[in-house]
Design goal:
By secondary structure, the chain is mainly alpha-helical. It contains eleven helices and no strands.
Length: 304
């Protein structure tokens, strides 16, 4: 029961964190000028994401403490929680993540939506995302190789947030019918294509590095024999599915939308297909985060 709660809370933390970093990044590079769509939805979305990260992290601190202490009743004791926070890197990392999330919540609530608010959210979001590497497998490798592993893990997480957070923003924009056929949406899709390519390249490169540390070349052939390896295979399948959907949007739907808008034709059909594919890609990404959350609770093959 506690193990399932830990996985679910990790998924909530991941999901909120990619929104905290990826959405304001997309709003900065994807939506420019004063002729773009209404972006007032950005503030409540970021507020919800910050609240989810903060509450889920606080709950995860209790759940992780209960796993280590052996019972929930023992975990909620102030002395036990204090020992978890001050005596373990995991506890300290969770505490810092929760504090930063609530800081973002206060900041987004108090500041007017715009480039300053988004930039500050991005800055804190980077630390929140990096904290998953500090409290995960990326921090377990020792020596000089450990720095390489930790750096690769942090870059991997940032690239994932860049991609998945932008998908969340695009989903909101495309679901708002009044804005879906705005030329600014086409420009945002076109700009995201280039950024998405960089994110995918970083994900592949850092994924290979992380797999080398966590699995090892000698264990690749037997990858599917253990639960961790099976989840890694599932993660790769979901990643490939996201790539296929992204390729269709970049090379078919986005150019078609641009042609129709420039010709003054009705883009409703293309917008509907874009909406369907972007929503599907976002849902696959959410499922992938669930797989990652589960993998983070398991011992990788290299440690067995």
């Amino acid at each position: 029961m506690l193990e399932s709660a830990v996985i679910g809370l990790r998924w909530l933390q991941f999901s909120g964190a990619v929104v905290l970093l990826g959405v304001p990044l997309f709003l900065l590079y994807g939506i420019r000028g004063c002729d773009g769509p209404d972006l007032r939805w950005g503030r409540p979305l970021l507020m919800v994401a910050a609240a989810v990260v903060g509450l889920a992290t606080a709950a995860a601190l209790v759940a992780q403490t209960a796993v280590m202490a052996g019972s929930l009743s023992e975990a909620v004791k102030p002395s036990t929680l204090t020992m978890m926070v001050t005596g373990t890197a995991l506890g300290m990392g969770l505490m810092i993540r929760a504090v930063l999330a609530f800081l973002v919540l206060v900041m987004v609530t108090g500041l007017r939506p715009g480039r300053i608010s988004w930039g500050l959210t991005i800055a804190v979001g980077l630390v929140v995302i990096a904290s998953f590497a500090w409290t995960g497998h990326g921090a377990a490798t020792g020596g000089a190789a450990g720095l390489v592993h930790l750096t690769a893990d942090i870059v991997h997480l940032i690239a994932a947030a860049l991609w998945l957070g932008a998908l969340v923003a695009l989903t909101v924009l495309l679901m708002r019918r009044a804005a879906a056929d705005d030329p600014a949406i086409h420009r945002a899709l076109r700009d995201f294509s280039g950024v998405g390519t960089i994110a995918v390249a970083l994900l592949v490169l850092t994924g290979l590095i992380n797999t080398g540390f966590l699995v090892g070349p000698s264990r690749i052939a037997s990858l599917g024999t253990g639960l961790y390896g099976q989840l890694l295979i599932a993660k790769l399948i979901l990643f490939a599915l996201m790539l296929a959907l992204a390729a269709g949007n970049r090379f078919r739907q986005t150019p078609a939308l641009g042609s129709l808008l420039s010709g003054g034709e009705d883009p409703a059909g293309v917008v509907a297909r874009l909406r369907r594919d972007v929503v599907a890609e976002t849902l696959v990404g959410a499922l992938l985060l669930g797989v990652v959350a589960w993998m983070g609770t398991l011992a990788p093959p290299s440690t067995l």
